[in-house]
Structures are given as C-alpha cells and as structure tokens.
Amino acid sequence: MPRAATADDQRRALEIACRRANVSVDDLWLGYFSLGGDAGAVEVEAYLHGLMPLPAGQRDILAHAANEHLDDLTTRLRIPYARVVRPATPPTGALAALVKLLEGMEQEPPEQLIGALDAAAAALGVEATVHLVDYGQRALIPLRAHPRAAGGAVIAGSPVPVESTLAGRAYQWLQIVPDEGEGDGPARLWVPLLDGTERLGALEVRLSDTDDPGDPQIRRECRWLADLLGHLITLSTGYGDALDTARRLTPRTPSAELIWDLLPPLTAGTDRFMIAGQLEPSASVGGDAFDYALSHDYAQLAIFDATGHSMTSGLVTAAAIAAYRSVRRTGGGLLDQGTAIDDVVSTHFTDRPLFLTAVLADLDLSTGRLRYLNAGHPAPLLIRRGKIVKSLTAGRRALFGTGHQPVTVGEEMLEPGDCLLLYTDGVPEARDEHGDFFGVDRLSDLLRRAVAAGFPPPETVRRLIVAVMDHQHGILQDDATLMLATWDPHLGKLV
Questions:
Q1: Strand ranges, E, within 47-185
Q2: Co-location of 473 and 458 in the same domain
Q3: Cβ contact 189:179 at 8 Å
Q4: Same domain, residue pair 200 and 290
Q5: Domain that includes residue 413, residue range
Q6: Which of 3, 362, 415, 481 pairs with 245 at a CA distance of 20 to 30 A?
Q7: Where do the coiled-coil regions begin and end (predicted)?
Q8: Domain boundary pick from 224, 244, 264
C-alpha cells in the first residue's frame, strides 16, 4: 500500500521534475490550469519555492500536470520477446489483501477468519470489523478475535440495531455508506456483506487518515474484500459452528435446527429473477419452510406448512422437501412432484393424521409463463407495479397426505417486473393482544409502501416479517413464512 505524499514530498518532486524535463513555471501552470487548477501562476511559483502552501487537491492537480510532461519525455516503444516470463513480484494493494484472506483460511476453522481479515485489511492500509446479522435480521453483531485464546476464538460484541444506524443502512440498501465521524478521527465505510445475493451483515472499514471515503478505488477495493469475505463466511460455516453461533441471539429448538439446515440461501437470483424469503420465529420454527431451484431458463419454487408445531411437524416438512427435491432433480414436473410429496407424507406418518399444505410453482424465465399447484395453502399474490392485482386461485387440490386426487395445473402469464408473494397462514392469522388479525389488507399495504420506497427484495421481505412479529409483540401463535419472487428480463444485478 503506497504512502500518501506530504506537501513537502510533492514540492521537492515537482522541483526535480521541472528541472529534469526543462518545464518552465508558465508551461506547468498552463497544464495545471487546463486540468481545472484554481491557483494563479504567481501562487504556483510561490508554492514551488516554498513560500506558500496549496491545498492537497490543488497539489494533486499540479502533480498530474507535471506527470503529463514527464510522460511526453518517455517512449512506450519496446522490442517484443518471443516468450514472456511473468515477473515473480509479490502481490500488492487489493490483490495482496485478497490473497492474504484466501491463504489465511486454508485448512483453518471458521473462527480464524477474523485474524485472516485483519491481515487482509492491513494490506489495504485499513482496519476492518465483521458485523454479522442475527437470524431474526434485527441486529448486526460485531465480531473480534479473543486476545488471549489460542486458535482465534471469536468474541461477539454488543448488537447494533439494523434500524436507524449507518451499519443497518448499508445492510438494508446494499450500498456502501460513508461515516465521516466526529472530530479529527479517521473516516469509515460501511460495506454490505454478501455471499452472492444473500445478505450476511456489514463490514466496517476504518480508513487511514489520508484516505478519502469518496475515493471510487477505495470503495471498489473494500467491496472486493467484503465479497470474498462473504463467500468464506458461508463456506466455513458449513464445517464449523463459531460464526453461526455468533448470529444466534436465542437458542434454537431441534425442530428449528432441522428446518434451517434444509433451507436454501434466504436470497438468490439471476439476471432475470430474484427470490427472497424469511421465516419466524427463527429460533423455534416448526413446520414452515421453502425451497427453490434456479437455472438459466426456469425458476422452480415451493413453500410448505405442516400441521402442528412439534418436532413431528418439522419431520413431515423435511420429508416433503426431500421428496420434492428428489423428483425435481430428476426432471419430474409439478404433478410428479405433488405425487411424491403425497406418498411420503401419507406413507411414513401413519401414527396420527398429519397433513401438509404447499404451493409448487414453475416459472419460464424466457416467457413469464407460470404454472403452479396449490395443496390447501393460502393463494399466492400477484404484484404488478407495486400493487396486489389478484390472488392465484387455480390449480387447487386437497392437502398433501390425503391421497392422490385429480388436479389441474394453474397457469398465469406474468409481465416483466411482476412479483409473486407466497406466504403461510401464520402471516395473515397473526393476532395482537386484542385478537385483531394481521390480515392480507395490512400485508398488501406494507408491501405497497416497501415497493414504493424502492427497497431491495430481501429488505422488503425483512420489513414484512418484522411487521408480523411486531403485531404480536414478538410472540407468534404460528410459524410465519414469506417468499417474494421477482421476474424481469432486464432485472440486472442486485448490487
């Protein structure tokens, strides 16, 4: 990481450059003025002789003008070689930071990630702290390495609210948020921390005294660091518990553990499709779950809700997801998927009647043609231009577990930009202390507001599920799950 030049460094270098390049003060000033310099020729000459200072920005413009004169004295003509040997130079700057992060996690447990990040940040000339979001998506939890524990044990700091904080704003909007701070301290950047499109938290980057938080290159380098870090967090969480445990503000029930291990990423997308989901209560969910599979041409979606709220409900849902994936991954369509789910529920859970509601859907990403089955589940809502325009009520059949029944697949043609909202009955049936239901109308109004505000799809889902939880003061009578799918041939990247 190169050191920023002081005013004296720049002035001495300018004197040497002008003398060697035979550049007069007038020629230097003309180049400086053409690049947007504000100082007059007399002021520039006084600066060169050390008689008066110039602001850092003006000094940089003057340096750029001198460098252009130096470039004119050199030639880029070279005789080519038949074979080129790459120079064995060590990586520097952003590449060095990424290499240190990768090499720092080779055959290491998840908790070593904090130390690897420290080394990577130092290569960029900054300091960084990971803030992971809790599973309820209400708080960002700062992590640091234990100063005395061997092996890099992780310490979780005090949670930072997602709402009304700069860290939370970066997380919500998926944007880099600068923090100039107070007094003469260094500035900070809050960088969204993602694995692909799944939000994991925010990366706090403390800049050096000479860094400009508005510098596009610094922002790019911090984004690269956060992107690689996000991938490594997800990868290492697959074989160790340290980072996952830090995100849990409440211990999970065995049923919730089962469901969470079955879930795909909460957010995923392609250049034409985006899906985001969330379920509550995150620590004790019983029989709710969702699943999906994305390809270039199709998006296949499913949402499940098993009757009851016990461990058995989680087992029913787990078996249904396994049956659904088994058929889906061998090319089976909606009818075959439904038959497989029916078989596994009715065959393997016979001690007492157990049933499962679900919606299975298949979307052609080239045409917008949606095909779906609904087994006793709340009808999906079609959202167009920010408003719910209809409920998708076709393709209905009885609950899974009641045996095979003739069924007609429902169809709908989506328009570019349309969204589908799938949810379990725990959303509209959530009740406050007065017994008032949350209701579809309230859900529709909150959805309209979130879309109008321009929130990214995962933030829209988070706000909806938070509203459901707040309606019941954090205590649900039933699991509540939401899944928002957006189709647009020109969707582009989430960030």
A1: 127-133, 139-145, 154-156, 160-161, 177-179
A2: yes
A3: yes
A4: no
A5: 251-487
A6: 481
A7: none
A8: 244
Cα–Cα distance between 476 and 426 in angstroms, integer? Answer: 8
Quick one: pLDDT at residue 182? 64
Task: Using the structure block, give the residue that is written with the tokens 């997801």.
Answer: 321
The answer to whether residue 307 scores a pLDDT higher than 90 is no
Angle at 22 between CA 20 and CA 27, to 5 degrees: 130
Contact 323, 334 (CB under 8 A): no
Spatial separation of the C-alpha atoms in residues 379 and 394, rounded to whole Å: 9
Which of 215, 244, 273 marks a domain boundary? 244
Alpha carbon separation from 240 to 106, 110, 232, 243, 246 (Å, rounded): 14, 6, 12, 8, 12
Q: Which of 176, 177, 175, 138 is nearest to 159 (CA)?
A: 138
Distance CA 469, CA 467 (A): 5
Q: Say whether both 235 and 348 belong to one domain.
A: no
In single-letter form, the type of residue at position 286 comes to G
| pLDDT one-digit tens code per residue, 122-147 | 999 999 999 999 999 999 999 998 77
Q: How far apart are the first and last CA of the chain?
A: 27
Q: Distance of CA 42 to CAs 20, 34, 166, Å?
A: 21, 16, 45
Averaged pLDDT of the chain:
90
**Residue 49 burial (CB < 10 Å; 0-12/13-18/19+)?**
exposed
What digits encode the pLDDT tens for the residues 179-217?
A: 977 666 789 999 999 999 999 999 999 999 888 999 999
**CA 234 distance to own-chain centroid:** 12
